[in-house]
Amino acid sequence: MQPALNKIEIFLLKIEQNEEAVFSQHPDYVLYPVVPFFQLVHIHNIEQVIEKLHQFETTLGGFLIRVDGYVTLACPEFSVLEEDLRRLTIQLLEIMRF
């Protein structure tokens, strides 16, 4: 029996699965860097930040992946409104507590 995964492990596993899906099935998706991945290590409210990162996927219809050291949103070019992306990014940065 495998031990239950915590929210951070689930998030990391989902990013890994998303990477496989994006790079094998959606190589034409546009990549929008959101936040440096290493910053997540220093966050005190990581579970709240992970919940906000999930909103990027649900609101903008893409996949969160890791590219060049960034948590990155991969999605079809025309599915993202830059104003929505900007708003979500600002909200994310506002809730991050170092």
Write the layout of secondary structure elements.
Elements: H1 7-25, E1 30-36, H2 46-60, E2 63-67, E3 70-75, H3 82-95
Antiparallel strand pairs: 1-3, 2-3
Helix pairs in contact: 2-3
Poorly predicted runs of 5 or more residues: none
- Give the overall form: globular
Strand order of the largest sheet: 1-3-2
Distance between the termini: 36 Å
Describe this structure in words.
With 98 residues, the protein is of the alpha+beta class. It is built from three helices and three strands, in the order αβαββα. It has a three-stranded antiparallel β-sheet. The longest helix has 19 residues, at 7-25. The mean pLDDT is 92.
Write a concise synopsis of the structure shown:
The protein has 98 residues and is of the alpha+beta class.
